[in-house]
Amino acid sequence: MSKTNGKGRRATVIGAGIVGVCSALYLQREGFAVTLIDRRGPGEEASTGNGGCFGYASCVPLSMPGLALKAPLMLLDPDAPFKLRWRDAPRLTPWFLRFLGNCNKPSVEDIADARFALLSRMYDGFEPLLAQAGAEDMVKRDGMLYVFETEKALAQSAYGLNLRRRRGVKMEELSGDQAREMEPALGPSVKNAFFFPQVGRTVNPLRLAQVLARHFTDQGGTLLRRQATDFEIGAEGARQVLTGSGSVECDLVVIAAGVWSRPLAQKLGSNFPLVAERGYNVMLPDPRVTPSRCVISGERYVGITPMEHGLRVAGLAEFAAADAPPVYARAERLLGLLAGLFPGVNTAGFEPWMGPRPSLPDSRPVIGRSPKHGNVLFAFGHDHIGLSTAGITGQLIGELAAGRPPSMDIEAYRPDRF
Ligand SMILES: Cc1cc2nc3c(=O)[nH]c(=O)nc-3n(C[C@H](O)[C@H](O)[C@H](O)COP(=O)(O)OP(=O)(O)OC[C@H]3O[C@@H](n4cnc5c(N)ncnc54)[C@H](O)[C@@H]3O)c2cc1C
Q1: From CA 347, how far away is CA 257, in angstroms rounded?
Q2: What is the pLDDT of residues 247-279, one digit of tens each?
Q3: Dihedral (C-alpha) 107, 112, 114, 115: value to the nearest 10 degrees?
Q4: What is residue 145's three-state secondary structure?
Q5: 52 lines ligand 1 (CB under 6 A)
Q6: What is the helix (H) or strand (E) element at residue 19, kind and residue range?
Q7: Does residue 28 sit in helix, strand or coil?
Q8: Rounded mean pLDDT of 23-40?
Q9: CA–CA separation, 36 vs 313, rounded Å?
Q10: Distance in Å, CA 14 to ligand 1 centroid
Q11: Do residues 18 and 47 make contact, with C-beta atoms less than 8 angstroms apart?
Q12: How far apart are CA 305 and CA 302, in angstroms?
């Protein structure tokens, strides 16, 4: 397999989140001279504050059957994991109508196939990058515990569990006591659990992006701290990326700007229904109880991940403008949810965070060539699985850029599907 099809060609990647950084590294492996542009430091938006979970089991989308009926009530319930910034509702309504149209079993089965096709290759995509950067210790494969406190939540999860099982996700059913043997700090309310051995985690999502970005520059890549604003288009497609301070000439452009990819794609003639599904986390510097793997609650809708700098609890899906002010009271509610599962936890000194998941209404990312410009590639819209699938996305971008057939079927992610 040739790794030099990019030789002598210049590629510019817009966005140094985890998807853009992995894409830039794969382009380098293909021989391109790569410029990575971000208005902030690498990984400092959604890629900073995620749950850190390499979600092998995350093929189940948000748009589950029955949600269309429950959603209106959930939006009014202060304890529900869905939130809406009401002033953004008119702008978000077309997205919700498309999303709700996917809340049925045939669509969910297709979506789960599309998500699992990427998730099942997530380690293949990341491992070469971690190995070349000497960062293998930043990803641990120690599994995930999915815990339940009530029969009701367990019964409601049956379809989602089955969806995973039918796609070959390994899982082991446990009693509450068996779960506590694995995680002794779990409280007595946990009655049932499933252990997913293929799930992994990073010890620090921000540092992961930074370490990979540093490796990119160590290998000769150019990292520019600038805001991309527009493009100059020539006969072959995008010729220059215009930025707040000068332009960057290129033979190939990759749009990997997370939720902010939408206005950039619009400049290139493509309109995507991409919205911010904002999530929150709280970081506990001295939690006193530390699980040894990711723990996800079946009824509290939170993910708890041990990291090198403390314990992170993440959750919530808040539909709002990406850059609207955070409602940190929402993050603080996560503390109560955490304490119900881990009664001995110390929350002193917690730090709240908010960031936008880039979400499309059919719960699958856009990975592929622009329908308008042959030298523009799109890589965005990874909603809840962008950390996990950044490596394989980067690999596919590298293959497309080099003009090789992609190593997996990417029809489900094609940009012209909207
Ligand atoms: C609370 C929460 C928990 C999550 N948990 C998980 C998890 O456990 N596992 C998982 O796999 N995923 C998880 N995710 C999802 C994951 O974090 C995202 O899918 C992923 O970070 C998206 O990466 P990205 O590179 O596409 O976007 P981003 O990280 O948002 O990066 C986009 C970059 O583009 C830059 N940019 C934007 N516009 C411009 C411009 N015009 N010019 C220059 N630069 C620009 C931004 O500054 C930013 O750095 C979670 C997300 C949240 C919010």
Answers
A1: 33
A2: 999 999 999 999 999 999 999 999 999 999 999
A3: 140
A4: strand
A5: yes
A6: helix 18-29
A7: helix
A8: 98
A9: 31
A10: 13
A11: yes
A12: 10
How far apart are the C-alpha atoms of 322 and 356, rounded to whole Å?
6
pLDDT of residue 403: 96
User: For 94, which DSSP code?
Assistant: H
253, 34 contact by CB (below 8 A): no
pLDDT in tens, 37-46: 999 999 999 9
Q: In degrees rounded to 5, what are phi and psi of residue 96?
A: -60, -35
What's the 383 CA to ligand 1 centre distance in angstroms? 8
Q: How far is the CA of 174 from the centre of ligand 1 (A)?
A: 34
Does residue 28's CB lie within 6 angstroms of at least one atom of ligand 1? no
Beta bridge partners of 281: 314, 353
258 lines ligand 1 (CB under 6 A): yes
Integer CA distances (angstroms), 416 to 272, 329, 350, in order = 9, 39, 43
**Structure tokens, 402:** 């080099």
- Could you tell me the pTM of the whole model? 0.98
Q: In this structure, are residues 248 and 222 in contact, taking their beta carbons and an 8 Å threshold? A: no
DSSP state of 385: G
Q: What is the per-residue DSSP string for 194-209?
A: EEETT-EEES-HHHHH
**CB 163 less than 6 A from any atom of ligand 1:** no
| Ligand 1 contact via 279 beta carbon (within 6 Å) | yes
Q: Is 93 exposed, middle or buried (0-12, 13-18, 19+ CB in 10 A)?
A: exposed
Domain boundaries, the chain: 60-103+141-198+274-359
Q: List all residues 6 or more positions away from 227 whose beta carbon is below 8 Å from its beta carbon.
A: 39, 243, 244
Which protein residue's CA is at the shortest distance from atom 44 of ligand 1?
38
> Considering the domain 60-103+141-198+274-359, what is its CATH architecture?
2-Layer Sandwich (3.30)
Give the pLDDT confidence of 206-236 residue by residue, as tens digits: 999 999 999 999 999 999 999 999 999 998 8
